Amino acid sequence: MDTIYITGHRNPDTDSIVSAMAYAALKNALGDRRYQAARLGQISDETQAVLERFGVKPPQLITNLRTQVQDLDYDTPPILSPAATISRAWQTMQSDQISVLPVGNEDGTLYGTISAGDVASSDVASVGDPYITGIPVYNLLSVLEGRILNKSGEMKDLISGEVTIALPTGRENLIFSKPDSIVICGNQPDMIQRALELNVNCVIVCQAEVCQELLEKETETCIVSTPFDAYRAVRLICQALPISGICKSEDLVYFHLEDYIDDVQNKVLESRFRAYPILDENEHVVGMLSRFHLLRPRRKQVILMDHNERAQSVAGLEQAEILEIVDHHRLADIETKNPIYVRNEPVGSTATIVAGMYQEKGLMPTETMAGLMAAAIVSDTVMFKSPTCTQRDIDVANRMARIANVSLEELGQAIFSATCSDDKTVEAMLGTDYKEFHIAGHNLAVSQITCMDSERLLKRRDEFLAAMRENRRKNKLDMVLLMITDVLLDGTQLLFVGDEDNICQAFHIRSKEGNCAFLPKILSRKKQVIPMLTSLWG
To answer: Which residue of 9, 105, 169, 388 has the lowest C-beta tally within 10 Å?
Structure first.
């Protein structure tokens, strides 16, 4: 079954990570085991502290959802050895209804490819040039369903020569006159006698017996009997050659399972092959890719948690199939090709919504998962002080804490004490909870650090402002803001660069000197800061 990824936004916070994990656990517990929580960025110190508190590992990291070769319904035909006969290759193509087969070395790596065109070209060429070089005796016996009749024939491993059909024409002495021949005959003792006298490489006797006297004759000739007639035997001899002699083994075009489809399509357009080998991470052949497979690729499937804005989502989202959105933010710019399930509720944490879905499905979360959801709600509502917090958030957090047997106060203390440390760079702290917004033609970014000692962080104000200016220049943003939200002060220290006049106007800041101001009762980026900025261009 295809994996369905459940992922939060870029630069994930605790609510984003925990909500994805909790929803995946809920889906899997209901019987469908395809769901897997994922994250789009590095785990913050806060989230790491929460996960360690409950003994849980972070979700899998994914960097994009672009369609890859491994997402396609590619063919998995048999992988032939270079020593396999042309006959075997042709029979395999017919039975599997595929025109190109991979040829692999003994260790599973790629040797080449063989196509129906290669077989046809070899067959036509054998008509004009009946000389056959180096047929393994094992191959010859296999395709002819034959057996060796004389003891000297058992000593031969390879057979070469010009293929000649010895017909009773009355001019037998002109048919072959050199040892370097493969003579095909029927019930013709005289012809066999002459061939043995010349020590031809091989005599193939079709639908006839050979007298014991001839078989006991001293000769280097290999005598083979076959139940097929002479015409069919000639054609089968050509097909006894190893495919290594006719398959394509140079200038191969192949792809890996991890290759992206848009890159593959460009390379396919530059070549004219019907199909292409697919290799895994160990360079082993796993299948064949044809142009047909690229027409309707199977896209990765994803559920978006705690966001519905393309700029905050995973790279390559346009190539993925969005199945659901569970969020508590404003509706943004995500578009889908088909109707999907969307659950967007005005609460302070996505984890509150997910906890409610556990109740709706009649499933009690485990102590670990309940503890994680309680921590996520405390984090996203800033210990219930954020204006986004609702009574429902408080009730659900208390219920989850009872199930997990934990204290919300202790959780809050651990969460907001782990946010920042002196050994972290300002760039790392800015990127921990960083979001970009595109509003009315303006591009801006807002980072948020929630702590219990904002004064300690403000000592590094100049470092923060320098990093913010560099970020603004690099990403061509109109403004960059940093919210240092202090739980104990019940407010936010706002640092800002960019369109400073408009920022001061939006937040009623009297002086922009120092690019810093304290905003009492301002705790929420979503419900307070972004609406204030949006009003500037409304």
So the answer is: 169
